[in-house]
Amino acid sequence: MIDVTDRHCRYFHRLLAPHARLYTEMITTGALHHGDIARHLDFNPQEHPVALQLGGSEPQALAYCSKLGEKWGFDEINLNCGCPSERVQKGAFGACLMAESDLVADCVKAMQDAVSIPVTVKHRLGLDYSEDYGFVRDFVGKLYETGCRVFIVHARNAVLKGLNPKENREVPPLRYGDAAQLKRDFPEAVIVLNGGLKTLRDCDEQIDRYDGVMLGRAPWHDPIILKHISEAWWPELAVLSESQLIDSLAEYATHQVSLGVPLRIVVRTYLGLFNGRPNSRVWRRMLSDQKSLNHANGELIREAWKAVGK
Question: Which of 56, 131, 180, 245 is deepest in the core (most CB within 10 A)?
Answer without folding.
Answer: 56
